[in-house]
Amino acid sequence: MKNKSIIDSWNKTDPDSAAQEHMLENIISRSGEKRMIMHWKPLTAVAAACVILLAGVFVFNRIDTPDQLPDSVSSGKNSNLANQNPESEAGIADLSDEIKGLPVKNFKLSEIELNIAMDRIAFSNFLNFFEYGTSSFVIVKVADTQPVPATGDDMSEKQTSAVKILETVWGDDVPKAIDVTQYLYGGCTGDEATNLLREGGVYLLPLENYKGEYYLNGDLDVLFEIDDQGRIWSHSDYPDFNRYDGEDYQAVTKEIMRISQDDALILATSSFGMAMRGWQLLEVTITSDPEEEKDEYGYIEVVYAARVESTLSGDDPGTKILLHSNTNEDVPLSSGKRYLLFVDNYDGKHYMNPNMLASVEADGTIKNLGGEGSTFAEYNSYTVEEVSKLAHEVTEFLKTFQQ
What we know:
Layout: H1 17-30, E1 39-42, E2 50-52, E3 58-60, H2 86-94, E4 116-119, H3 126-131, E5 136-148, E6 158-171, E7 177-183, E8 202-210, E9 213-216, E10 224-226, E11 232-233, H4 239-242, H5 250-260, H6 263-268, H7 271-278, E12 280-286, E13 291-294, E14 300-311, E15 320-326, E16 338-346, E17 349-360, E18 366-368, H8 384-400
Parallel strand pairs: 7-9, 15-17
Antiparallel strand pairs: 1-4, 2-3, 5-6, 5-8, 6-7, 8-9, 8-10, 10-11, 12-14, 12-16, 13-14, 14-15, 16-17, 17-18
């Protein structure tokens, strides 16, 4: 994901600059800065170029369907209430507060015929929403929807929906009326954009607030829709979601509240907890000055020799290891000093990251050496033993959480 070019195809499309920035910020803040790899396997010669954004924001190039995108519709804005047009605002004011929507067809998003197959991060359980940027769960009623055609600067077709907030279930406060932006999947992943909100519909939405604009998380995998009887439908194949299909919508809101009040879940979805998913936490003493060496591709890496004092997560790597870092990363390690750090065990090597390390002081407490929001930022003055207990809590939580 470090490369600007994600995929080339017969119909090459790059994400617009705002989408690229959004994608990179999500990857950095939500993945513990671990490198993310996605594999694309075109099944047809005319596969559209797709960029999948973590945290549920996806950018796709859609095969145009004239009846869905009339030429007369002008490009709209991804906006909050301040940018809404007067007609949408008036329509919102006329909506009732009743949490009942439209009759719902119980389709599954996965039933859409795929044009390409892909390995990607999917939203398969409620934990994923807390992991990947959800700022609020809200129940909304849709007043109006508007297609937003692609432009020269923004190659992604979208839909904006003017919605009234009926209830905030969890998370940050949301204005009473907002515009919600969705990216269209039709053409790239299916024949029609079934993920889109419907005018008059009522939904339970996981929202991400990005620079004052609201997006949906995970609507390729789940879209909670409340029907005209107050029953909820997930449109998902994942058991953690569809076990509530046909039940009163409050069955889902109660589950969201239950897991959001779990201290272990909050820890598991923090930067520290996210790093525990794919990185190994070690306490080490640096035993050499840095040396430079070339990797198999000819890139220069900085290498430190280290002695492992304790293994706080993962398999024991042995007493002596080599720690690798890219030369463009400022890693403040000194020979003879002790550190807590996360390592990415990749291709038989132990890679470290400057935002995922802390020094161990003489009194046994740690000092964060990364920036604001980095892995150890919340744990200054914790002892190594206390951090070890946190690591154990995350490990046990992930074992027991329903997958």
